[in-house]
Amino acid sequence: MRDATETFTAQRPRLFGLAYRMLGSAHDAEDVVQDAWLRWSGHGDAVDNPAAWLTTVVTRLCLNRLDSARARRETYVGPWLPEPILTTDPATGPAATVEERESVSLALLTTLERLTPPERAVYVLREAFGHSHAEVASVLDVTEAGSRQLHTRARRHLATAPAAPPRADVGPLLARFVAAARNGDVAGLESLLAADVTVWSDGGGKVSAARRPVHGRDAVARFLVGILGPSRWRGTGAAAEVNGAPALLGYQDGELVGVVTVDTEGDRIPGCPLPAQPRQAHLPRRAGVTFRGAVRSTLLTGAAPRRPTASGGHMTVLVTGGTGRLGGALVARLDRPRVLSRRPGPGRVVGDLAIGEGLDEAVAGVSTIVHCATAPRGDAAATEHLVTAARRVGTPHLVFVSIVGVDRIPLGYYREKVRAEGVVQGSGLPWTLLRATQFHDLLVQIFTAAARTGLLPVLAGTSFQPVALDDVADRLADLVDGPAQGRANDLGGPEVRPMADLARDWLAASGRRRAVVPLRLPGAIARGYRDGAHLTPEHADGVVTFEQFLAARAEGTR
Questions:
Q1: CATH number at residue 149
Q2: What CATH number should be reported for the domain holding residue 508?
Q3: What distance lies between CA 557 and its chain's CA centroid?
Q4: Which CATH number characterizes residue 178's domain?
Q5: pLDDT per residue over 217-230, tens digit each?
C-alpha cells in the first residue's frame, strides 16, 4: 500500500493540472483528485500503468462534472470565470514552458467553455499533456479517427484564443496601474488601458460585481477606480505569477481577498483579472502564505471569448428558431448573435415568421441569417416572409437547415420542407443548404411513444443514421463562418444501424423491458425508409454515436 501511495503522490500534481484545465476550478479539481485517490486506493497495487490508469479516471470524472457544471452555470449570477491558480507552485501541474502556461491562461480557460466536454478533454490531453491520439482514444473510449475529429473541431473553435503573455518585467507597468487605481486617477488609468478593453465581473451573486460587461477605456477606468480607489480599498499587495501572467495578490487586514493579473502589449494593458468573490476553500487566508487558487475574478480583455469569424472580426448573425434546441446550441457557438423570437428576451428581436411581422427590424444590418425555425405547416410561407425581408436590406448569406431524404420520402412535413428549400434556392440571395439525418432525440421520442403499446414495434428492414444535435450545431457554425456554398455536403451520424438494434440499445439504457417487433409496413413512405433514402453513409461525419448519446443522457439524469 505504501508503494501505491507514493505512486499516487508522485502523480498528484499532473492529475491536479489535468483536472484544473478540464474544469477551470481549483476547488472542483481538488475534489476530482480526491475521488481518484479513493478509486486508486482500492486498485492501485494491481495497475500495470499507473499514469495511464489515473489519467483515464481523472478525465472521466471531469467529464461527469462538466455536464453538471454547465447546468449550474446556466443559473449563475453574472458571468462565470475560472478560478486563478499560482503557476509557480509545482503542485498545480506543468506550467514551465510557454505552451504549458498558455494552457492555464485565464483567457484560454474562459474560451474552453465553448467546447463540448469531449472536445475539451481531447484538447487538454493533446495540447497541454502531449498525449497521442491513440492514448486519447483509449481514455475517452473513442476511435483514433474520432479523437482526431474532436481535436480538429476544438482547435477550430479556439483559433483566436489569446496566447499566454511572454515572461517580461512588467513591474513598473503594474505599479503605475495600481497607483493610478488607488489614487483615483482616471486619466492615468486610461493612458495604460487598451482602447477596446472590456471588463467582466464574477461575484457569484455573493459580493458586489458588475453583472454585465463594461466596455471601453473610459468606462473601464472609472469602474476600476470605483472598486480599487481610495474610498474602497484599504489593503496591501504582493507580486506573484497567476495563470502564467504577472499578478498582484490583494490583502485586506492581512487576509487574501483577490488577485489582479496583467497582460501587456508594449506599454498598454489589454487585459487583466481583478478580485471579486474569493472562495473560502483552498485559499491561504493570511499574507505571506503561498496562494493555491480559487479567487473569483473580473476578466478584462480586448474582445469577448467567442467563436471566431472567418475574417477575424465580428459579423452580425440572425438566428431564427434560436430558442429551440438546435438554434439554442448554435447561438451558444456564435459571437453575439441576434435571435428572432415571438417572445422578448436578452439578445432577441421580437417577430413572427408566420405573418411576417417584425422581420425588417430583425434582418436590419445582418450579414448572415441561419434559418433554424421550422413547423409542420407553413414552413414555406414563413421562409418566403424571411427572404422577402432579407432582400429589402441587401444580400445577406442565408443558411438553411433541412433533412436528408426530404425529396425522396413523401411525408407531408417533408414536402413542406422541400418547398421551403425551393424558396431559399430561388431567393436571389447567397445561400447554403445543409441537410442532416435524424437527431438522436427523435429516435428516443419514437421509441418512447411506441413502447406505450406494451411492445416496441420498429420498421422491418430499416436502418437509421442518427446524429448528435451538437454535431449539427458545429457544422452550422462552420457554415456561418464561410462563404455561401449552395448545397453543402449532407451531415450524417457516425453509424448506420438497424432500427431494431437501436431500439434494443434504448431499452437497455432506459431499463425498460419490451419485445422488439419488426413490422413491414406498406406504402411509399415505409419503402423510402427501407431503401435508405434518409441515410447518407458517404457523409458519416458526426462524432457521437447513439450508444454514447444514451450513456451521457443516463448519466445526466442521475
A1: 1.20.140.160
A2: 3.40.50.720
A3: 20
A4: 3.10.450
A5: 888 787 777 766 66
